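Q: Fold this one first, please.
A: Sequence and structure below.
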Amino acid sequence: MAIELPKKQAVVVGVGWAGGIVAAELAKAGIEVLGLERGADRTPADFIMQKDEMKYALDHDLMQDLSKETVSFRNDKDMTALPMRQTGSFVLGTDLGGAGIHWNGQAPRFFPYDFEIRTHTIDRYGEDKIEEGITLQDWGITYDELEPYYTKWEKTAGISGEQNEMTPWMSEEYPTPPMKETPAIRLFKDASAELGLHPHQRPSANLSENYTNPDGKTIYQCQFCSFCERFGCDYQAKSDPLITVIPTAVDTGNFEIKTHANVREVAHEDGKAVGVYYIDGNDGQQYYQPADMVILTTYVLNNTRLMLQSGIGQPYDPETEEGVVGKHYCYQIMSGAQGMFEDKQFNLYAGAGALGGGVEDYNGDNFDHSDLDFIHGGVLSLNQTGIRPIETNPVPPDTKSWGSEFKKASTHYFYRTLSIGSQGASMPYRYNYLDLDPTYTDENGDPLLRMTYNFTDQDRKLAAHQAERSEEIMKQMGADIVTQTNQATGDYNIVPYQTTHNTGGTIMGASSETSVVNNYSQVWDCENLFVVGASTFTHNGGNNPTPTVGALAYRAAEGMLEYFENPGILVEDED
């Protein structure tokens, strides 16, 4: 029996970047907000002197316990899905701050092309350019409409970066200068320029200098310690929710956080959310939290799962192509090139999560696809994130993976190996989707989320193109041994790590027939329910998703405030 609690004006489910932004904006406007976070409490003090590669990078201290809740996976609908028992292709964060704690800090925007991708592709190349089964659609919002919210997020996070003619247009410059250019990055940028490309220093949430944001929160200068991805920053030099939006919300006096609160269901009546049910991990008791507004800001997969579990919206059916919840699950298509140098050494022990040079010439529709058999592309980048000793053992192809030969080669190439990577865009495919598993359940008896996903011909062709372009740059850099890397040559494998850039499932659009939410992240079928995060992306772009999540969260918060002013409406742009 659930214990009913006093009603709140707004309940935010999941307190990371999206939840923190929404909580801060609502709380600053005087709205009473309760944040429910299923993980533990975290503060910046937890990470002081915690540069422990084994604890965080390998044992995944900041990640979800898959023995209690996981996802099941299959490549196609004729396979039996099995639970993911150990962290593999992507890592699922938990605790206050979410994935915003352990991200690298790479902060590029999506392109104008992304938001009107179907229209633009057809206008330029014709409808036949879109591969059969690729269910491409526009987002229901344009880059120009979203641009002010990108700027707002960048000011909150203090992003360090620079523009050039291949990056999306910006109404204002980045709030802090670009990061340092190391010898390895300079070599990449010089080689790219020699090939007629347009390299730039990548935008970074590892700040180039001390910065105080408009809310009065200070982020400090990066120390290049190399412990960004999968780690919290003990210098408070990587922008994350714990040092920006969450304390901003708390400072208002209108925001309360409950940790160890695992939300299982959104309660709803007559087209409106009325509250949430959650299990308190401290006492195992179930509680019912009534609310005037419910906002789902959990990770991509749990946003979708909660919608399905709560029976809100029509689940997607790939056979009939009817329904929208679970539709358009996308990932990212990784490829690139590795280069080994005999006569050059680089101080790769120093680095930061977003320290790198990038080339956007092969991203979006920046290049002509007329004679190519795929659409979109991805950034090419050389990132100096810092090499850590346990996981870093580069050796040439065909080297034994053990013994004296391996040790000698690994030691020799430790400081002589560079990598260029491409984050290839992922297009939605009819048979790539999310639903509830009919067999497997979590520790509370609720069905796991089932992922059905495989690479398409579009993915494989894009990956091959990007690997070839990466190889060209690496050879121009003078590497003695160059090897292409490509994770999309066969079927998608959920075991080796790729990225945690999962998207889709509660997609955004201009119509309730083709999407779950409108462009304010408001659910078409449940007017006081908002779903915010990368689950609303209709496809995944060729760059990191976090800035777009931040921009959409600021826009969603604006819509929520409009709804509080005028209950009962679907929020729309003013003419």
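Q: Good. Now the second chain.
A: Here it is, same layout.
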Amino acid sequence: MDGAAIPLSTDAVGSGKVESAPASPHEQLEQSLELFFSKLKYLPQPDIDLLEAAYRFSEVAHEGQYRKSGEPYISHPLAVATILADWHLDPQVLMAALLHDVVEDTAVTKEELQELFGKPVAELVDGLSKLEKIEFQSHEEAQAENFRKMLLAMARDIRIILIKIADRLHNMQTLDAMRADKQRRIARETMDIYAPIANRIGLNAVYQSLQDLSFRYLHPNRYQVLSKAVKAARGNRRQLIDKILAALQTKLESAKLKFSVSGREKNLFSIYKKMQEKHLTFSEVLDIYGFRVVVEDEPSCYLTLGALHALYKPIPGKFKDYIAIPKANGYQSLHTTLFGPYGTPIEVQIRTKDMHRTAEDGIASHWMYKSTDGHMNEAHQRTHKWLQRLLDIQSESGDAAEFLEHIKVDLFPDEVYVFTPKGRILALPQGATPIDFAYAVHTDIGTHCVAARINYELMPLRTRLRSGDRVEIVTDNQAFPNPSWLSFVSTGKARSQIRHYLKTMQYNESVALGESLLEQAFDVLAPTRGDHPPEMWDRYLKEIGSKSKDEVLADIGLGKKLSMVVARALLKLSGIEAADMSGLPAIQLRGWESSALHYGKCCYPLPGDKIVGLVTKGQGLVVHMSDCHHVTNPEVNPENLVEIDWDPPSDKQYDVGLDVIAVNDRGVLAQVAAVVSDHNANIVNVHLEEFDQRPNFTYIRFLLQVQNRAQLEDIIRNLHAMQIVESIRRRRN
């Protein structure tokens, strides 16, 4: 049994100490080197000799290079290696840390490193090097591509992320030398990406340090004020903290438990975040201190919990059992909040020594040199599963920026824990819905999801899940993702899978439409041409630099290429003379609507209307009524106009605008809407306006969905028969 005092913050402002003259850069480097080798006692001498050789090689490679602070550049890789030595990582990782910038910043090659220090070290260093010789349009694009490269390297060797996190931690600790704008940019990137990754892999102490350091540069004034306030409160509340520590120790001793108890101070950013979220002043945040009890084994955790609840009353709803249900990063502890002396809330964490090691070092504890702890394999497996999920997202994201957006969504700080029908526990981010749950179980279940039962009751798919919910997904093989799902899903996996499906559907429909347009052009230009020789397409693709025939067809369908131009080029390559363009046969609309085929919002064409297609760049084929001003405009290129016609009737619903002027009586909207509904039309939205000139009338603007023109004419005829309706107009242009 032992008790520890609350640790003082290392960044406390205005300590008032008299400092001695600072050491010279050379002296500082010697001290850092001595500190590094003092931490290597867990390694055998041959490994230490290798590390010394790696240090000397890196020192020579970086000779003449200096950091912005004026220190020799070698001080940075040495500091990164020292952080990793604290985690007792293997020699390969420490060598890679010492050498991690030599390929990027010096003339040393990967092959040289492989020859001198072995392939694993060279691969680690390569995974840490930024992308070179590629020009990006923006910093965001470069950041996204570098992160994607790092992820792919992490998938090969998870140790890369440990080096990268240590590298970012030291960069944040020495950020003072940078310009203010660069400080903010690096701090924002750290807060958005690197701190959440540290949390996700269980590096709790590093996670909190990165948060505090980012907070310091993102909000320097708030950081200074809050830092001073915490320092003052530390002195003011010392007597209370000592009293609580003594009471906890006495109670646990009487329960005959083997334990250590210590006080801990919340990090500045978590205090600031609580003040922001709950709109509190600093004086209203009572729980800036917490206590941690470390015991021998798991049963002792629950015995300790019972003893503490007998000492101070627990606050209802403030107990969490992360031992029975660990967090996604492997974290385990019992959390409880008690009513302490004078009504002060006391937060207490209870855990075993193994749980404490995992809580502090996370996945790094798995690589502790010659670790034989079997349960650490679980941490390894969890991180591999997380990385695999990120790789799945990566493979389906269109570009690096979109991928990074998904990753930021996926790096969640808080989880809800829900159950499958078979009792399996899934961790999802706060705000997750049944759609997120379905994709977390399996991609196919998410793709074909139609309904969800939460705790045995059918609930909407946008319902927010809560910890403890039992979720069952109802699927239908004929169902597919709805674009509206993107407005409420929470996980990166669900978002990327939905977008991937929608893009694939768009592409396939664009290819089909492009093929129809091209065939139509061929029928006019060379009606007796016969089959297209394959070499015709091969030569054409080579000429224009496209990868495939489908890519060209999709471009035609999306309006990026004109079918007539492509048809003429293909026929020329085949040696077939093209006829003049005239009288194209009409394309039959099949009732499908996608980004490859749109219905004009200017005239809302319906089956039964005379229509024409306008090929518009980036939109593909847009269907208009034949007298719409968008197609009758003399500036329209005739080659962009395509004859189209309606297919036989289908059950598809089409949007149409209807404007009604009616007497401004009570219940007028309900009466008009009832007539519309009686004709099986769907009201998408409705907007009412009053006339300034005619106050007795109201202007009702409907957006309806009907099957065809005949159905709309029936609705208009019945509305005209109502005495309260003065006029009706189908909305055009």
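Q: Anything worth noting on the second one?
A: DSSP finds 27 helices and 21 strands in the chain.
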